[in-house]
Amino acid sequence: MMKQLLLLKHLLVVLNMLACAGMCSADERPNIVLIMADDMGYSDINCYGGAINTPNIDKLAEGGLRFTQFYNAGRCCPTRASFLTGLYPHEAGLGHMVYGDKGPGYHPYLNKQCVTIAEVLRDAGYRTMMAGKWHVGHKQGQWPTDRGFEHFYGIHLQVDSYFKVLPGCPVYHNEKMVVPPTTSPENTLHPDQEWYTTAVFADWSLKFLDEAAEDERPFFLYTAFNSPHWPLEAPDENIANYEGKYNEGWDVLREQKLARMKAMGIVSAETELSPSNCPEWKSLPEPDQKELAFRRQIYAAQIERMDQSIGRIVAKLRELGTLDNTLLLFLSDNGCCAEGGMFGYQWKKNTKANFADWRKQSGRSSSTGEAWSSASNTPFRLHKRWVHEGGIATPLIAHWPKVITEGGKLSQQVGHVVDVMATCVDVAEADYPEEIDNRAIKPLAGSSLLPNLRDRSIEADRTLFWEHEKHAAIRVGDWKLVTLNGTDEAKWELYDMNHVRTESNNVAGEQAERVKRLANQWTTWAQQANVLPWPQDRTTK
User: Fold this and answer.
1) Which domain does 39 fall in, by range?
2) What does the pLDDT read at residue 364?
């Protein structure tokens, strides 16, 4: 008996040593910070050829890696569903938006056959935190704290306001409503400062980071800004920085941006601007030019203010001594938005002269419109909600000094937001579950970017899929098959993306067999991923 007790004692000592070794290993795992912009165009930020002051994002690029061929899902809810789960949007149950329920693939929430990054990392020993826009389920049981986030501050639905809290979109701290709809929300962390969502979400990100410093666990922070999504609302001091900058209009801006992108190597030297149906700037009356240039000023100011907030987050990581071993990813949920027509939503009373009143109207009171969106998505075709490049191409900046030791480089790796979960699982040495509570969890659709982060290894011939509002696409290697509003055989367009991605040279008529093969491959995926049948063809209760 004594011998058995002695053996048991030795066994417990060994197990304790192994547990300690495991904890020490866990302590050395990287922290993870994911930052998402909302409705920002591919080439808006300076380090992707833009004409907006983004020095803090630029510094991340200088010390990190810029991906030139990374994709989102084309719209806010589907991208966030895919980004958070590592599945295509319909596989996660949220193939459209968070209203209406058309059954599998088109729920207004994440289904139970997926897990979020927060759930996986929490179970792997990470502290999980989120600030900002959730937008993947707004009813109880679907909130961030129900899907793995231990700490949350933000809004469950859209955030179509910067200076106030809209009806139906109150602010929550964990499960508690802390800011009801109001025209004058209190900035609780900084009562002396005006409420501005971009700054407030950054404030809470900093608070969460300070609290995480008291925890021995590595941390995961997801900050989801609502900038630069409409309405056009920004602080006066940021707007003033762009006075006169856009007076030459969108035609000149597109040309200037393309030249910078070529010089940077973001796009190939052969790239030309995609066709545009926007009116020539010089054809517009001068009063209209002034008002439209002012709208672009505000849009740029929104991004500049977001950049300043990102700079604060990076400074906090540096202050806490965690920056070197933090993987930080920055990207956008979709391309720039053309909603509101050619010149955007614009109430007649909204003019530069009365911006003091206009800036707090919120909702659909103002937007950039199709013409400026084309400039934001330079050199690509179309916008948010479409799956041509202008809708789905996003900048992706990866910053991780401990691993990315040679900064300022470009990666040509083709990737998609489905890769973010796989990357987080990989770097965190976490386990992705096959089932939870006897519920099967769908296998990951993405691939880890870690090999590319380490030595820029390229995974060739990726196969990626898209669908949103019957706009469909598949990319296999350098070939992309894409369609507008339906998948009838005659609607498919085929493009060689090897050197030029502006989708201007449709070769579908010359490559009928390739079109048929890729279309069949897309259909097979769509049937398996809950894309088909289309929502209007379903019978749901």
Assistant:
1) 32-537
2) 85
